[in-house]
Structures
1.
Amino acid sequence: MTSPRWLTDAEQDAWYAWRRMFPLVNAEISRDLSTDSGLSEADYDVLSVLSETPGSRMRVTGLAGLMQWSRSRLSHHLTRMEQRDLIRREDVTTDGRGAEVVLTDSGSATIHAAAPLHVASVRRHLIDHLTPEELATLANLGETIAQRMGITRKTT
């Protein structure tokens, strides 16, 4: 058995900073999203992805992969969103094996109303605290880690 590769002081500082920053920023933005629009982070993620996708539709499997969720977890969440008339599911007519998630008119109106408030919250709790150089570094770090973990950037 090999001995653990302990974190250096600099690595530990970075890890602790991440552990403090992420939940604080995420909690504030999530709280604002819920208060401002009644949406959860997951609701917003589904709606924003669909609103940026051609035809406002996406296969369930593709959406699950993009969100890094199991199909079962996504299916349960989509059921709750369907009950609120934010999305609907339709069979894929070209192959008959899959389903697509489609943004409803109500879902479109909801995401369009929520987006400006959400962006203001993201600015208030993250963006406005960083210099342009720090923002570029944060973006590069996020993309680097995601790519090394096999996650490619979402394209619409």
2.
Amino acid sequence: MDIHPIDPEKREAVLAALEGIERRHDVRILMACESGSRGWGFSSPDSDYDARFVYVHRQPWYLSVNERSGPDEPQRDVIELPIDDELDVSGWDLRKALRLVSKSNPTLSEWLRSPILYRGDARAIASLREAVTEFHSPLGSWWHYFNMATANHRGYLKGERVRTKKYLYVLRPLLACQWIENDPTPPPMAFEDLLDRLLPEGPVRSAIDALLEVKRRSAEVADGARIAAISDYIDTELQRRSNAAPSLPTGHGDSEALDARFRQMLREHAPE
């Protein structure tokens, strides 16, 4: 089974949407990937497509006195298409992406590690990856994933029946925390990579594998009874981490070097 399925027609629809964005907003898209459950590896047959991208404007856009995105429009650093039943397409301006990198936001790091790349400029991607590495904060990333796991657990896994996918939305960030505790590199985006490293075998892994099989063949709204092995594992791991954050590096980067990288990327990649 392909755990990262992309229908050829949907791929073409995403690519067409990206081309339309470039024309309408006068930008150049540097990279675009799949960010949701299809990228994580546990999509359902009716899961939508979550395309995410980083784009750059012409250089004068960054130097305007009165900021604007278009005629009579306020300047924004996000482009979003209306969400329909199948496609969710949105992206960040390069400056916003690098600003979040400077705060060690793990989101761009995940995009750059997505197993599904719709399109991308190799030099731009390499430069973004270098920036992510320079500013990676294990402690900041740990808190990002721990808070995500805690919020999803509190919001969706307290009853006797739960929506199947919500187990996975707690397990993925929880395993990302475990990865960070044992490895200085950012955690992978693909859920299977986390599982194979951190839960290669045992009763909990067997229960998760069974859950994945159900998730991959069931509708997005499917729910089921509480799975004791997984619930107990999640409860134990969250409780253990709620007592104290691990001792991890905070990370540091050179803000002036990041500004220089931004200017260089504008020179190399902004539309002429």
3.
Amino acid sequence: MEYPDSFASALTGNWSGVRTTALQHGIRFDIANSGDLLANSRGVRADIRYANLLETAFTADIDTLAGWPGGTLYIMAIASLGGDSAETNGSISAPSNLTAADGFKLFEAWYEQSVFDDRVGILAGLYAVDSEFDVKGTADVFLNGAFGTGLDLSETGINGPSVFPVTSLGVRVRANLSQEVTVRVAVLDGVPGDPNDSSGTQISLKGADGLLIMSEINYQPEQFDFLRFGLGSWLYTAEFKDLLDTYANGDPVRRNGTYGVYGFVEGVIFTETEARDQGLSAFLRMGGADEDVNQIARFYGAGLVYTGLIPNRDDDIVGLGIAVGVNGEKYKRARQSGGVAVRDAEIALELTYRAQLMRWFSFQPVLQYYINPGANPALNDSLVGGFRYSINF
């Protein structure tokens, strides 16, 4: 846990010394609010949507607080409101990664115990896998949700995987095999929340839910300023209906589980001579999912990100990215057999610029262009434009 000398990067400052005192006892409070105002030109219909997300987090270093080495307690609650731009844009990917059902909920609540000088960590509780799995720090600037968890993973499961905005109970084990190699494995309830009730925090453990099992290995070679490779896999153990195949009586064939794999690389391409934290970075992400039960069979994402492009704007970030979700053959054949036309893929392009106007406030204009939104031939290509603001309290 960091112990800053001041809280100049927070709008509300040091709370008359309360934050510093809390940190000295191993407790940290974080509060942030972000809002997206996005307008789409066509898609299902032209419209303007606003989404807001308030995040409050509590972190406790149990060693400092209670003398128990290696323990960390983390609790995060979120409050969300506003509309989903994907509803009027018609896209598979979410134009705003803040979008969630209106309401207040406990989002994460877990305890992690590290052992062997932090070479191994065991975490248990309400856990969002997208906090550690399929994470590309270089892609953090983008608003479209597909640049976070790829569509080949985010669009799976009975109620999605355990990612924002719905999480499930689970256990995660981390092992630092060396300074360069880290392995993570997580086992979670296969159905986060309640598919029939999006309000509040819903925890319901049922045998039919099965499990979601995730694994990822990261390799970050020491000889580079920043270069990281990741390879991951996921598996649901529950039963799923086949998208196309049926039994003799016409019922869909039941498949025992579904799976997928993904890989990514991100790193610095070059840095400015006089400022090592400024320059051009990039990421590339690819993944595939079992076509028997999943709509998105393949996903490709890539982006270029430049920090400090404009002189005297050292903390500003500009990003250009592309996300491509490709429909599986079974999904297309099932739709076509029902008389519904479908295109092969949806393509989303994003150009955005995050301006750090104050240490606690950023403003971020964005333009997104959707080719074949929803892979629906009845929808015209759509332009989405607007802005995000973020405030650190």
